[in-house]
Specification:
By secondary structure, the protein is of the alpha/beta class. The protein has two domains: 172 residues, Alpha-Beta Complex (Aspartate Aminotransferase, domain 1), CATH 3.90.1150; 240 residues, Type I PLP-dependent aspartate aminotransferase-like (Major domain) (Aspartate Aminotransferase, domain 2, 3-Layer(aba) Sandwich), CATH 3.40.640. It has 16 helices and 13 strands. The chain is globular.
Amino acid sequence: MKNNSRRGFLRKAGFLSATNLFGVFAAKAWGNHLQKAFDQVQHLSASELATEEDFWYYIQQSFTVSPGIINLNNGGVSPAPRSVQEAMKRYYDYSNEAPSYYMWRILDQGREPLRTKLAEVAGCSKEEIAINRNSSEGLETVIFGLTLQKGDEVVAAKQDYPNMVNAYKQRELRDGIKMVWINLELPSEDENYLVQQYVNAFTEKTKVVHITHVINWNGQIIPVRKIADEAHKRGIQVVVDGAHSFAHFDFKIPELGADYFATSLHKWLYAPIGSGMLYVKKERIKNLYPLFAAPNAQDDNIRKFEALGTRPFFIEQAISKAVDFHQMIGIERKMKRLHYLKNYWMEKVKTLPGVKLNTSLDAKWACAVGNVAVEGRKPGELDSFLLDKYKIHTVAIEWENIKGVRITPNVYTTTDELDRLVEGITAFVNK
């Protein structure tokens, strides 16, 4: 729905009656107006709402995105909505009035309520959630905290995130564990193929399997639960990299069958940059050593993983506002919109000569993250062309067997911006 129909939606929502549109935008109680917009679409299904551009325009106004650039690299770090930014700034100022007092005696007291809110989103006990700074920190806590002996095998994929790959290689070098690397041919919509790539690598010596829920390079969703079930039949522990999945599409962590799960909250939850979360299944906590020394390394209290020293409390406490924003949108609405946006541009470019899509169009196998390649051209060429000629920010990907440009819209992205992207890709193909 284009701009000329937006006015009709706003009038139906009551925003153009006593209060004009500009007054609404200027109002301090923007959240109340946004909630009113949600109230007006309660009768629409998530699928129907996904295409309502006038409604999502309202969501866009909750962000402070730059008008000078079209940001389609939200897979790296997503911007936080205005409410989160303001909370973080407020807590920062508060902290600086008397840092040691306000940080440790006041703001630190907000961690337990925050833990409860995150656990509600994750669908697990708050005693299984630790708050940290990013998914790499959470996953490396697990990788370096697991008790593994020389000769023990760990199964992982070459398409996993570099920080994790390097962490396992370090343990291999230092402790003599054996890494078994599988090589996934992606994209894939063959569940049996994906599961068997992991299962076929299991041996009697396999102690751990590392699974990336959403492959960072191209958005491929991996059937974690099926792999986890096969692993647990063999007594193998399951580590899940959820950097790109948490708050992105609809699932609860326990449904994955993971023993360990870590994510960055500054991606799809829209929390401040430098916020993350670690899930450890309750019975696994005791035997997992913390990355940073805790008073009792073998305690079964999840809080032992939060012995991080002095850290930015103003970032941590602003996470709560991100949870509120996420819950207001609703995970199903968000998921449907993100998948719609990904498919919107991919459907328009897939028939261009030489264009190859490295991401599935099926919602079961991908959501917001897409990857496109042009035959005979390097990913960096397309990435630079889009930025130089169209002011569109993407990221060139060349990792193992995945080569292309990763394009990641977000809830604030408009279809007009994606039309601009399609125009840019078309111009690149034809030049």
